[in-house]
Write a structure and sequence with these properties.
binds 3-[O-phosphonopyridoxyl]--amino-benzoic acid, seven-stranded antiparallel beta sheet, 291 residues, D-amino Acid Aminotransferase, Chain A, domain 1, alpha+beta, single chain, nine-stranded mixed beta sheet
C-alpha cells in the first residue's frame, strides 16, 4: 500500500495513518479543514481553498505552523505520492494534542493531516437525470453561534440534517437559517434559475462561501447570464425554472424535485444547468495549478 497520507511531516500508509486520542480535533471537533479536488494533475482553485483554510483557522485562533506556500508544496507532494492524476484531498488542521478538558492552550502544536483519495459521491445517473431533495427541520447555526463560513470540524449540524434526509429516503437536504430563509444543503451550495437569471443565497444567510459556488457564478456570467446573490425562500425554489447544487464533492448536480414539487417543466434537467455542467467539466481539466 502506498505511503501517501501526510501527518505532521511524515507519510504513512492507510493502515498506519493514526493520530492521538488526545487530539482536540477528535475530542472536541476543534479544528478546520478543506476538501480540494485535483483534475489532470491540476489542483482546482488551490489558492482559494488555501485562503479559506487560513481564514477559517484565523477565525478560531488557530495558527497554522507553516506559511501558505510551504503548505501548498506539502500538498503537492502528497498528490505526487498518491500517484493519482484525478482525486480529492482532505486537508485537516486541528488544535493538536492536549489533555482532557476544553483548554486549547494545552495543545502546543496543531496537527496537520492531508489525505489523498478517490471520490465519487453520486452515481452518473444522478448527474444525467437530476436528484430529488427535501427541506429538513435542522437549521443552519446562526452566525453568532458558529459562523457557517468557518469550515470547522464541527459538522454535527449538517450530519443531523443529512440523517433527517436519509430517514425519509433522500440523499441531500435543504437547510434553512433561523429566519426560515434557504441557506444551503448539507455539504453543497444551492442555486436556482428564474427567467434566465441565476440566483444563489447570500452567504450571510448561513451559506458557506463555496469555492465551486464562486466558480459557477463566474461561469454563469462568462456565458452571458445575469447572476445575483439574494435572500431565498422555499417558494423561490419551488417556482424556479431550474435548480442545481454545487460543491467540491458533488461538483454541479441538477435538482429535479424539491419537497415533492417538480422543478420547472416536468422535472427535467434544465438547459442552463446542462450548459454549466458542461462548462465546469471542460474547465476543471485545464485550469488549476499543476502539481
Ligand atoms: N456548504 C457546506 C456546508 C459545505 O461543507 C459546501 C457548501 C461547498 O463548498 P465548496 O467549497 O466545496 O464548493 C461545502 C463543502 C465531504 C465534503 O467530505 C464536504 C465539503 C467539501 C468536500 C467534501 O462531505 N463541503
Amino acid at each position: 500500500m502506498s505511503e501517501s497520507i501526510y501527518i505532521d511531516g511524515k507519510f504513512y500508509s492507510e493502515d498506519n495513518a493514526k493520530i492521538s486520542v488526545f487530539d482536540h480535533g477528535y475530542l472536541y471537533g476543534d479544528g478546520v479543514f478543506e476538501g480540494i479536488r485535483f483534475y489532470s494533475s491540476r489542483i482546482f482553485r488551490f489558492d482559494e481553498h488555501m485562503t479559506r483554510l487560513y481564514d477559517s483557522a484565523k477565525a478560531i485562533w488557530l495558527t497554522i505552523p507553516m506559511d501558505i506556500n510551504e503548505f501548498k508544496e506539502v500538498i503537492k507532494e502528497t498528490v505526487r505520492k498518491s500517484g493519482f492524476t484525478d482525486g480529492y484531498l482532505r486537508v485537516v488542521v486541528s488544535r493538536g494534542r492536549g489533555d482532557l478538558g476544553l483548554d486549547p492552550r494545552k495543545c502546543k502544536v496543531p496537527t496537520i493531516v492531508i489525505i489523498p483519495a478517490k471520490l465519487k459521491l453520486y452515481p452518473q445517473e444522478a448527474y444525467d437525470n437530476g436528484m430529488s431533495i427535501i427541506t429538513v427541520p435542522t437549521r443552519r447555526s446562526p452566525n453568532e453561534v458558529l459562523n457557517p463560513r468557518i469550515k470547522s470540524l464541527n459538522y454535527l449540524n449538517n450530519i443531523l440534517a443529512k440523517i433527517e434526509a436519509f430517514n425519509v429516503g433522500y440523499d441531500e437536504a435543504i437547510m434553512l437559517n433561523q429566519d426560515g430563509f434557504v441557506a444551503e444543503c448539507t455539504a453543497d451550495n444551492i442555486f436556482f434559475i428564474k427567467n434566465k437569471v441565476v440566483y444563489t443565497p447570500i452567504t450571510s444567510h448561513g451559506a458557506l462561501k463555496g469555492i465551486t459556488r464562486d466558480f459557477v457564478c463566474e461561469l454563469t456570467e462568462k456565458y452571458g447570464y445575469k447572476m445575483e446573490e439574494v435572500a431565498v425562500t422555499r417558494y423561490d425554489i419551488y417556482t424556479a425554472d431550474e435548480v442545481f447544487i454545487t460543491g467540491t464533492a458533488c461538483e454541479v448536480m441538477p435538482i429535479v424535485t424539491v419537497d415533492g414539487r417538480s422543478i420547472g417543466c416536468c422535472g427535467k434537467v434544465g438547459e442552463i444547468t446542462k450548459l454549466l455542467i458542461k462548462g465546469f467539466v471542460e474547465l476543471v481539466n485545464t485550469e488549476g495549478e499543476l502539481v
